[in-house]
Every structure is written in structure tokens, then in C-alpha cells.
Design a protein that fits this description.
With about 250 residues, this protein is of the alpha/beta class. The protein has 9 helices and 7 strands. The chain has helices at about 20-30, 45-55, 70-85, 105-135, 145-150, 155-175, 195, 200-210, 220-230; strands spanning about 10-15, 35-40, 60-65, 85-90, 140-145, 180-190, 240-245. The chain has a 7-stranded parallel beta sheet with strand order 3-2-1-4-5-6-7, sandwiched between helices. The mean pLDDT is about 95. Belongs to the short-chain dehydrogenases/reductases (SDR) family. GO terms for molecular function: 3-oxoacyl-[acyl-carrier-protein] reductase (NADPH) activity. InterPro entries: KR_dom, NAD(P)-bd_dom_sf, Sc_DH/Rdtase_CS, SDR_fam.
Length: about 250
């Protein structure tokens, strides 16, 4: 019997916002499938711990990066290519929430969410696509949200940014397909993370009532779909949006 080869064997990947949560799970899944991963995040302590958890400097690196800054994103890719080789996969996952109703939301809360999610994803897509075009192939995966499909109360900023990521994904996919660079998006629903588990129980139960599969998703269930889109299994897919929601609000 031959040795099993991972879906991302020898691939070099960058995952933003991967020091913890879903991003870290994506990085862990990529490493398991043979990739070497650079984590781009603003949390230096968690980033260093993530590198250790993933297997050390031969497999993973951490670069402090604010995705709102295009030059910082470029520097992450420079580090990835210098350490491991040509960039093959880029995941725009970095994000945060500043929830409030429109009446109570400050302009700063709106601007910050748009900057991190939408401009951050644009910066990552732009830099990654440029390198991948030169290499002759690549896969970019953008993390949107169910909130970008349906709009959720208290998330005019987040829903707008996550819907914008879908438009960005489709437009970018059309621009770079001729160079064999694919751009796809994932829309997670209710995923069990420390952030979501901090919700008031009433809100959690309300959301659970909307999910036909009757449970929250696990970070690994998002990561496996990101892996699929990043791998050659999805070689004929670009500009698509995959929902990982348990059927919620389909």
C-alpha cells in the first residue's frame, strides 16, 4: 500500500485571524492535510501558542498582521514564501463583531467592522491573487456568514460586510479565473465557539430553533468545507458560496 497523501500536500497557506477559534481549526486541518501554514493575526500571545500547537516552526509561523493594512498583508505573504515556498492557499478569516441596533451603533463601530471584514478580505484577496497569478494557480477562500445572506438584527455593520464579501468573491473570481486562480466563499451559521457560547441562553435557544439539523456546528465542520474549496477536489469551482449552517434559514 502507498502512503496516503494529504489534500494539501506541499502547499503553502496563509490563514488570517487564525490564532484562535475557527481560524485556528482551519490551520490545524490544513496542517493535517500536509500544508505549511502562516497564521496572520493581531494576537501575538495566542499566535505563538498556535504555532506550538500546530507543530512548531517547521510547519507553522506566526506574523502579527492587521488586515486593514495592505502592506502588512503583503508582508505576511512575503514571510510565507520566504519560509515555505510559493503561496498556494489564502483564507480571509479575520473578523470581529460590534453588534448594536442601528440607532445605537456608532459610526466607528460601523467603520471598524467594514474595515476588518470587507477591506481586510479585499486586501488578502488582492495580494494573494497577485502572487498566485504569477505561480499559475491558487485557491482563495473568503469567510462570509449567514448574516450576510439574511441580515440579522443588531448587525447592520456585520451583515453589510459579510454580504460585501460575497460580491467581492464573485467579482474577484471573474478577474483571475483565466490565470487558474479560484476564489470561493463559505457562510457559516451558528458554530460552537467561545464567542457564540457567551450568548444569552434565550438567544441561543431561538437560533437553535431555526436549525433543521437541531444542533450548532463545530469549528471542524467549517474547516473541512474550507479545506475542500482550497484543495483540488474543488478544482472546477470558483465564485461559489457554500453555506455551513445545518440548514438554518435556507
Amino acid at each position: 500500500m502507498g502512503v496516503a497523501v494529504g489534500l494539501l500536500e506541499e502547499k503553502v497557506a496563509v490563514v488570517t485571524g487564525a490564532a484562535q477559534g475557527i481560524g485556528l481549526e482551519i490551520a490545524r486541518t490544513f496542517v493535517r492535510e500536509g500544508a505549511r501554514v502562516v497564521i496572520a493575526d493581531i494576537n501575538e500571545e495566542a499566535g505563538a501558542q498556535a504555532v506550538t500547537a500546530l507543530g512548531g516552526a517547521d510547519i507553522a509561523r506566526f506574523v502579527r498582521c492587521d488586515v486593514r493594512d495592505g502592506a502588512a498583508v503583503e508582508a505576511v505573504v512575503d514571510t510565507a514564501e520566504a519560509a515555505f515556498g510559493p503561496l498556494g492557499v489564502f483564507v480571509n478569516n479575520a473578523g470581529m463583531t460590534r453588534d448594536a441596533t442601528m440607532r445605537r451603533m456608532s459610526e466607528q463601530d460601523f467603520d471598524d467592522i467594514i474595515a476588518v471584514h470587507l477591506k481586510g478580505a479585499w486586501n488578502g484577496t488582492r495580494v494573494a491573487a497577485d502572487r498566485m497569478r504569477a505561480h499559475g494557480s491558487g485557491a482563495i477562500v473568503n469567510i462570509s456568514s449567514l448574516s450576510g445572506k439574511v441580515g440579522l438584527v443588531g448587525q447592520t455593520n456585520y451583515s453589510a460586510a459579510k454580504a460585501g464579501i460575497v460580491g467581492l468573491t464573485k467579482a474577484a473570481a471573474k478577474e483571475v479565473a483565466f490565470k487558474n486562480v479560484r476564489v470561493n466563499a463559505v457562510q457559516p451559521g451558528l458554530i460552537r465557539t467561545p464567542m457564540t457560547e457567551a450568548m444569552p441562553e434565550r438567544i441561543w435557544e431561538q437560533k437553535m430553533g431555526e436549525i433543521p439539523l437541531g444542533r450548532a456546528g463545530e469549528p471542524g465542520e467549517v474547516a473541512s468545507v474550507v479545506l475542500f474549496l482550497a484543495s483540488d477536489l474543488a478544482g472546477y469551482m470558483t465564485g461559489t458560496v457554500l453555506e455551513v449552517t445545518g440548514g438554518r434559514l435556507m
